[in-house]
Amino acid sequence: MSNLAPLNHLITRFQEQTPIRASSLIITLYGDAIEPHGGTVWLGSLINLLEPIGINERLIRTSIFRLTKEGWLTAEKVGRRSYYSLTGTGRRRFEKAFKRVYSPSQPAWDGAWTLVLLSQLEAGKRKAVREELEWQGFGVMAPNLLGCPRADRADLVATLHDLEAGDDSIVFETHTQEVLASKAMRAQVRESWRIDELGQQYSEFIQLFRPLWQGLKEQPLLDAQDCFLARTLLIHEYRRLLLRDPQLPDELLPGDWEGRAARQLCRNLYRLVFAKAEEWLNAALETADGPLPDVSESFYKRFGGLA
């Protein structure tokens, strides 16, 4: 265990989840740490790396097998060793999910909305389309009507096509509004996206990770393994929060929105630990050619720059 009580608390909290979310944590690790180093590692070194978080070898092997079966990972045998990397599909999924995590800021909003009317779809397909669009940031504005203030038109069209719902869905795009967020609009947003519930989850994230940030700042010398564990659990929890966050424009959010403070805390803590965490990764992980390759240049652009 670590000498840092807040870090031990986070590790214990992860271990007490039922069931333990090993597959999700492995995806976090690949996206955050392994992909920038070329994307491929020896399974044995991965097992050793995750052991301090309390994930045993059997659970890791089971999770890796499941992720391979689901198309996230692919294996290559070199002698008796297996090396795993993200598949092309897995990499695209990761890029889409993690782009939100590391982006320095959101683009400005011009007040326009994208609306999708689903009333012409049969009930089963309507439910599937609604769930997928909600994952992409749409909210239910009225029965069978979903809206998003910052939709990607290409993603929307592709989603409707993939779900065979393009011909029976009606898409509208509104013009820019002079008043971006009226009182009625803010009330609608609070209702359609369950903003209060998400805000509470961000508040809990802050309560979990602020003591860790303070504890690490007080250390005269940062421990490399502690920094790796802190970084991995930080991004794991923050990524899970962002999957529920529609990333609404600031104009539509409460003035005391906890998501802003959570993002600043995540950025500050990541900048504090990333370099020492890299030392631990370089020492612990192996590829078929030996040590990990250097990180890609894009890695240092995370959170607006890792100085």
Describe this structure in words.
With 307 residues, the protein is of the alpha+beta class. The chain contains eleven helices and seven strands. The protein has helices spanning 5-15, 22-34, 43-50, 57-69, 88-102, 123-135, 153-162, 183-192, 195-217, 224-242, 258-284; strands at 40-42, 73-78, 81-86, 114-117, 139-142, 145-148, 170-173. A four-stranded antiparallel beta sheet has the order 5-6-4-7. The chain has a three-stranded antiparallel beta sheet with strand order 1-3-2. A hairpin with a 2-residue loop joins β2 and β3. The mean pLDDT is 91.
Give helix % range: 40-55%
The portion of residues forming beta strands comes to 5-15%
What's the helix-strand series? HHEHHEEHEHEEHEHHHH
Number of DSSP E strands: 7
Number of helices in the DSSP assignment: 11
Largest sheet: 4 strands, antiparallel
Classified by CATH, the class of the domain at 113-175 is Alpha Beta
- Mean pLDDT score, rounded? 91
Architecture of the domain at 113-175, according to CATH? 2-Layer Sandwich
